[in-house]
């Protein structure tokens, strides 16, 4: 199950490495990132059923604040109606209100090539907006009118705070609340049809070493009826940007 936002870029356990960028045109840059992750987890739920996978992204951005990109990851095909890969596209604008307050607004579209349409339409779009205070505290809101295909409209609230630690380590604490805004059919987060929301929380310890970004994360949810994919877990990521 997915939704990130480019939230997925904020709460994904994939680690963003320090970027080496090249100039596309005046005041515009492109970067590419490759990540090996021990488990693709979004909002506390595994999309690879606990298995490792490769992830990658290509991002364009300019000094005016506009950006666009694409991100891809492997999937557990049994959980995604035969789809073995997720490819997401996104575009937005980021700026600042003051020296201590920044914002980010945009649109993301999530696709699952190869998914069997007989199991429903998986592709969907999502609007998002975020505020960041002092570059380390973020609140983000994501809205979809067709969450995960045929489920219906949804709202996700995400918050995170990053602490700088000795020896150039950083610790990020995060939490999110996912809410279905209408009847979601079989997409419920517990044994009862009324379980239309769930909470996720996690922590990630990160450090850059020799041009690679490393992170060890722990995550959990209060979902009761999804088996192992929503249980507490630890995730390791290593990432490099070019």
UniProtKB/TrEMBL annotation:
Pfam family, one: Gcw_chp
Superkingdom as given in the UniProt entry: Bacteria
Signal peptide: 1-28
Protein keywords: Signal
Protein name (database record): TIGR02001 family outer membrane protein
Organism listed in the record: Amphritea balenae
